[in-house]
Amino acid sequence: MTGPERDTPGGVPGVSGGVHPAWLPPSAMRAVGRRRVQVHGDGPLVATVRAEVARARADHGGDGDGPPDLVLALAPAQPPDGFTVSRAAGVTTVAAGDGAGLLYGLFHVARLGEAAFGAPFPPRVHRPAYERRMVQHWDNVDVHPVMGQVERGYAGGSLFWHDGALRADLSRAAAYARLLASVGVNAVSVNNVNVHATEALLLTDRLGDVVTLADVLRPYGIRVHLSVSFAAPARDLGTADPLDPRVTAWWALATDRVYEAIPDFGGYVVKADSEGQPGPFAYGRSHADGANALAAALAPHGGVVHWRAFVYNHRQDWRDRGTDRARAAYDHFAPLDGQFLDNVVLQVKHGPVDFQVREPVSPVIAAMPGTRVAVELQATQEYTGQQRHVCHLGPMWREVLGFAPWGADGPAVAGVADGLVAVSNAGDDPFWTGHPLAQANLYAFGRLTWDPHLDPVAVLDEWIDLTFAPDTTADPALLRGTLHAVMDDSWRTYERYTAPLGVGFMVRPGDHYGPDVDGYEYTPWGTYHFADRDGVGVDRSTATGTGFAGQYPPAWSRVYGSPAECPDELLLFFHHVPYGHVLHDGTTVIQHIYDTHFAGAQEAERMRQRWAQLPAGLVDPAVAGRVAERLDEQVRSAREWRDQINTYFHRKSGVPDAHGRRIH
Ligand code: GCW
């Protein structure tokens, strides 16, 4: 994050208005900005491309005369949002069928950097894997008394809302749109899926706010979506029964008004019958009935409803061992397959429980062949260190997308899904994401929506090149090497010092930060490890447990159902085993717990050390300082996790550490 073309006005050095440029500092556009560029075509997004080119050339002094080095042009027969890039006879050409494709093509050239203007290359077609590539915000308009402005937000306040109102200055929102567009995201929902009283009004009385946001995001090809309350019609009608014709008429009218104001509105996001949100169950109706009522209103306008599958009983009786939160989404939704209208997108969290650091892939994804399914990822690091810990999620997401539910010969999740959604990790923090290195998660998400087969390490390299411009620094190899050392394996490191073998929710109830091994045990929210003096884990087998393992197609239900075959990292998710159970690597479960927790905390220390060894000047001092401060907290917290977990299981099991290390 150094480079000659930085200005330094206050706040974060090098950044105008005190805001860090994330992966689009001026240097990211240098290769484009130094060239002669022609842009052919008309339309609002082509205008954005022209503005981007003008900005880049103003920053880098591209020369106006002579034949072009880069031609960006609208051309027929290109895939939607896609583009073809080629280089011949000293000219790089980007041809796209629409303005969005041209914009994506421009940012692609920026990623290629000088390589876009070197040796000739034949035409390469790029098209996004998914039509809808969406970021969802859990932002409240009002400050919620418990959750604050942003629910599970670790990056300051909302980019859109402040204290009950739309922000007067939306320049950050516009800069955010640019960042998102540069990685291919084209849809944003602007309010929390928990829709409280004020936020419910965005659909009606306060629609003007949404219009303004749509205007701000539109120049970067981003369509606005809105989280709505299923109970919205009840305010006028006293009922929200989805089969009541007055209710469907209400939705139709409300939706018509939205489209009158925002013709390219994307659609609704709904969390229904979940954690206290209203839903169709109150009227004895199914979730297909509920989703279809809203979908019917959106269909004439081309909108979609993202209907969340995150439905489970959070008022569980812990004495009832048959109820299993992991089963809930499948139990609710699999029987409804085929009943949803075509513009319903069932939005499924990637794991069956709730964004834990290690979960199997949700079986719902493979159980709904007659339904459009979007996979929901959590960029905001609720359960993965809350943007105080480095936890690079690209490798986790890549694993999810590469999982083949029917076995190696069948399609992978990436091919079954109809869209990808991430809960955003961005806020009004000067670094966007609290932890500057957490920007890479947003970057990786966008890139995976275009190509879910990308190698996460290569994606990280792209991000490093754009963000840090290593080649302009005194020691590119050291900078790149340090970032990889700190980030590449950070998800597994986090897993090591927190959750062993697929156990989840050993977090502090409420804020979900830090260890509390029994925090959720025997609560109405669920019980997650059942540790006693003999063993640990949740029996989710079909033979003796909750039967969750049986929700997978045969290839995996057999593997997961058997303690001998179950992959080690998920053993305690699927089975309750004695502490002496021997894992595939020959270690016992209890020894594995000790070993990984000692190792994980040590890795956190090494990460801090690596970062501290970066010579001053290689990284913008503000970034270096913020990362260093967060690494201090990560080391402290990792030790706390290590000691809490090891002590707990040592005392429960009475089994000493084979290596005689100190356990308190
Ligand atoms: O992980 C849980 C969070 C809630 C969130 C919920 C959900 C928005 O703790 O804060 O609510 O998931 O995904 O709906």
From TrEMBL:
Task: Say if the entry is tagged with keyword Hydrolase.
Answer: yes
Report the GO molecular function annotations. Answer: alpha-glucuronidase activity; xylan alpha-1,2-glucuronosidase activity
Q: Name one GO cellular component term.
A: extracellular region
Checking Gene3D superfamilies in the record gives:
Alpha-glucuronidase, C-terminal domain (3.90.1330.10), Glycosidases (3.20.20.80)
Set out the biological process GO terms recorded for this chain's protein: xylan catabolic process
Q: Which UniProt keywords apply?
A: Hydrolase
Glycosyl hydrolase family 67 catalytic domain: from which residue to which, for each copy? 125-427
Q: Does the keyword DNA-binding apply?
A: no
Which residue intervals define the domain Glycosyl hydrolase family 67 C-terminal in the entry? 433-661
Region: Disordered; residue ranges are 1-21
Put simply, this protein is called Alpha-glucuronidase
